[in-house]
Specification:
The chain is elongated and about 110 Å long. The chain has about 500 residues and is mostly helical. The termini are far apart. The protein has three domains: about 160 residues, Rossmann fold (3-Layer(aba) Sandwich), CATH 3.40.50; about 120 residues, Glutamyl-trna Synthetase, Domain 2 (Glutamyl-tRNA Synthetase, domain 2); about 90 residues, Arc Repressor Mutant, subunit A (Orthogonal Bundle). Helix 7 packs across helix 8. The chain binds one RNA strand of 75 nucleotides through helix 4, strand 5, strand 7, strand 8 and helix 7.
RNA sequence: GGCCCCAUCGUCUAUCGGCUAGGACACAUCCCUUUCAAGGAUGGAAGACGGGUUCGAUUCCCGUUGGGGCUACCA
């Protein structure tokens, strides 16, 4: 053991991170990505991942959104530690912190009313571009006697932070050193005249209370950071480490929004995307393990994640690659994990009942196993599964047009095929293949000429798993019955 | 407008001064083949621009351009 500086840190000093969404809508992919990185970091280092709902904007926050956030995170498998913190429950502490800053001289009272302020701002901005309104501390920070007088009259006031001279800078885990001259930061309000806290104060107050050590969030928060650092310092609290992640854009390079189609994680859940694929895909937006590695299961993501791989550049969300990624996960995940998602979807689509799934579990697993290879989404599997789960099938028009072109000839061929199938003593792929290829030879045609019409007869579709696997899955009686049905269809 | 961040194929990215710039998605062609996938092979496709620093710049520095974010008694 050497005496490296970090070795003397207490072992209890594990990283504490949080995801702090405001419940004003569904959980979108950008938020999910931020949550994922915080979670990965905490899980990798054995720290805590906390969840805080920033619901201080009562007008926009809804319980439904909060629920959507819980559901989204749960679906993604991003479990949080400790109890959920609701920012709204801490407004008293926020106000206390604001008044402490007032008492210590780090803040002052501003008696300007909100409407008055807005009017002043409008007046300046009306002069055209280039004219930016700026609060003038000399006019707003009144002499003690004046403040006392107004206070005695019961005039309402907001509390404004007194931005000190100098430069505020921090070593960002993603960007390295970032610095802001304090002269560019306006004295900002931390407590409204109605006594409620403003965002930057609430965040800092809560992060201190929650003992957050690493603040990882979107880089749209970079310009909030100097204000927050100033608050930490004025409050006499230790600074957390900051990491600002790049944004996620839509295919047009603009900030991701509803216009880009599915942007809520719930949308992708309903489109049949697996949570592990979603996490894998999202992880690659703003982070890289280095090298050529792309497809990673959850454990590998945790094992490889690190701040060294964090990227600075905004990434474009490409749904095509997400679907490819999902196809990879569909094939590579243990069958049990895939079926755990697919089987309920089959029930949900009305193709099977929970009782049937339970009664024929192994058969169901075999079905999922055969279908998952050629699917990119759970919905793809559901769409392909119908012929195996329903008694009556419908015939796909394109498949019929292509494979049953000559109806009379097809009927005759299928009749011959039926006899071969029905006569099989052993129901194995080897037996089926041997018998069907013999039939093809005896008729002097290619085996495919038998397989294709048969596929349509058995499934009603032009595409399916290998023909012998289909036969095996259906079982001899149903296979024969399907061919009989096809013969009637062709009559 | 001011401040801040960013800049390699269409997209996600590798490269931590030596590059014939690698991989993946998408696209095209081919192979495999009972269909469709999967898999394999091949192809087209990139260092925004201008200055430095250096024996040597995609890589380091400066500027320009472009994109993004913030600029509230929103979060």
């Amino acid at each position: 053991m050497s005496f490296l500086p970090h070795a003397i840190r207490p072992v209890t000093d594990t990283p504490r991170l949080r995801f702090a969404p405001s419940p004003t809508g569904y959980l979108h992919v950008g938020g999910a990505r931020t949550a994922l990185f915080n979670w990965l970091y905490a899980r990798k280092l054995g720290g805590q991942f906390l969840l805080r709902i920033e619901d201080t904007d009562k007008a926009r926050s809804t319980d439904e959104s909060t629920r959507a956030i819980f559901e989204g995170l749960t679906w993604l498998g991003l479990d949080w530690d400790e109890e959920v913190v609701y920012q709204g429950a801490n407004v008293e502490r926020h106000a206390r912190d604001a008044h402490a800053l007032l008492a210590s001289g780090h803040a002052y009272r501003d008696f300007t009313s909100a409407v008055e302020l807005a009017a002043q701002r409008a007046e300046v901005e009306a002069k055209g571009p280039g004219h930016a309104f700026r609060v003038d501390r000399a006019k707003v920070d009144l002499p003690a006697a004046e403040v006392e007088a107004r206070l005695a009259r019961g005039e309402p006031y907001a509390i404004r932070f007194r931005v000190p001279e100098g430069t505020t800078e921090w070593p960002d885990l993603v960007h390295g050193r970032i610095a802001f001259p304090n002269k560019d930061i306006e004295d900002f309000i931390i407590l409204r005249s109605d006594g409620t806290p403003v965002y930057n104060l609430a965040v800092v107050s809560d992060d201190i209370a929650m003992r957050i050590t690493v603040v990882m969030r979107g880089d749209d928060h970079i310009s909030n950071t100097p204000k927050q650092i100033l608050l930490y310092q004025a409050l006499g609290a230790a600074l957390p480490t900051f990491a600002h992640l790049p944004m996620i854009h839509g295919t047009d390079g603009k900030k991701l929004s509803k216009r880009h189609g599915a942007t809520a994680v719930g949308d992708w859940q309903h489109e049949g995307i697996l949570p592990s694929a979603m996490c894998n895909f999202l992880a690659l937006l703003g982070w890289s393990p280095g090298g050529d590695l792309e497809v990673m299961m959850r454990e590998e993501l945790v094992a490889r994640f690190g701040t060294e791989g964090l990227l600075k550049k905004a990434a474009v969300f490409d749904p095509k690659k997400l679907e490819w990624m999902n196809g990879q996960h569909l094939s590579r995940l243990p069958l049990g994990e895939v079926s755990a998602r697919v089987l309920p979807a089959l029930v949900g689509a009305g193709l099977a009942t929970n009782e049937e799934v339970a009664a024929r579990h192994d058969w169901m697993l075999r079905l999922v196993d055969l279908l998952r290879v050629r699917a990119r989404t759970i919905d793809d599997i559901v769409r392909q599964a119908a012929p195996y789960l329903r008694e009556a099938i419908s015939y796909d028009a394109d498949a019929v047009a292509k494979q049953w072109k000559d109806r009379a000839a097809t009927r005759e061929l299928l009749a011959a095929t039926r006899e071969v199938i029905a006569a099989l003593a052993t129901w194995t792929p080897e037996a089926m293949e041997g018998a069907l290829r013999t039939l093809a030879e005896s008729r002097g045609i290619q085996a495919g000429k038998i397989f294709q019409p048969l596929r349509v007869a058995l499934t009603g579709l032009g595409v399916s798993p290998g023909i012998f696997e289909v036969l095996e899955l259906l079982g001899q009686p149903r296979a024969v019955a399907r061919i009989d049905a096809a013969l009637r269809e062709l009559a």
